[in-house]
Design brief:
With 362 residues, the protein is α/β, with parallel strands linked by helices. The chain folds into three domains: 185 residues, P-loop containing nucleotide triphosphate hydrolases (Rossmann fold), CATH 3.40.50; 71 residues, DNA polymerase, domain 1 (Orthogonal Bundle), CATH 1.10.150; 64 residues, Beta-grasp domain (Ubiquitin-like (UB roll)), CATH 3.10.20. Helix content is 43%, strand content 19%. Strands 2-4-1-5-6-7 form a six-stranded mixed beta sheet, sandwiched between helices. Helix 4 runs antiparallel to helix 5.
Amino acid sequence: MSLSIGIVGLPNVGKSTLFQALTKKEVEIANYPFATIDPNVGVVLVPDERLDELAKLSKSKKVVPAVIEFVDIAGLVRGANKGEGLGNQFLANIREVDAVLYVVRAFDDPNIVHVEARVDPKDDVEILTTELVLKDLETLEKHLEKVRKDARGQNKDAIAELPVLENLHKGLADGIMAYNILKKVGGDSERSLYEKVLKNTQLLTAKKGIFLLNVKKSGEVSEEVGAYLDSFGFPEIEMNIRDELDGAGFSSEERKELGLGASMLPELIRIAYETLGLITFLTTGEDETRAWTIKRGFLAPQAAGVIHSDFEDKFIRADTIQWDKLLQIGGWSEAKQSGDIQTVGRDYIINDGDVIEVKHGA
């Protein structure tokens, strides 16, 4: 399953440094046939202590962690929605990712020029989000023109979509991101209609986001900036990106000796994974212990299809147990003997940490 986070920000805020820090540890791409081999796409391992524990239990020859893709997107400048700088390329790249990591500079350094000739995290976020909102307004206006015409012709789909589009347009015009407009929609049928419209229009501000504040040390961000970021409803993380790059090759003990402190990259990766709505299920045996990435809410046959595309259609049943229960009991055969292995059918919803063995037809 290939899902990606786009790294977005103004020039010289630490985007490329973050990308280097995230991708410094090489990943064996052959294990991930879906992964994009592209210089601005980094395939990053998802830290998961459960894998080593299970591999030790099963005496696995190989361990294959889950991965997440980070995309280094060209720096945005004011006026990007009109094509300023690399605006058109920037906005097209955002459209292709599943969520956005907004990197915001929150440190002073006279040797690193800020494109706006000042350091103001709140203003930087306003520039970023305003450019996306303006581009979305342009997209919606084109779409609205067609839908209004179809609605006048009594097209049922257009009549249903029109109030949704008009509400989205009004919210965007007031500076509200489509993601936050959707959060206020009540009722499953209405929400379903909004989601359909957002999928058709591919609005940039409908994507989930994360704020990463690039600081020299924690506590540099003012309460005013913190409150402003909170209003978006996105998770936030503070990080000294330069220190992360400098310490990327060191162990926890070596980082401590160098005064770098604990790395924040694992926490960022965890937040990114959760933001994309992903969970991990596991398979384990003598050949390998592997983490598999799926969307939260996947049924057992869908999860089986991630292991092999044929398994979804040919799914019969699955045996499953939570990873910690399996460790506690001491092995798969022991868990079967004790009756702790649960046999599930097509309607079983996979949980994070499920260890699974799929039974399928030939």
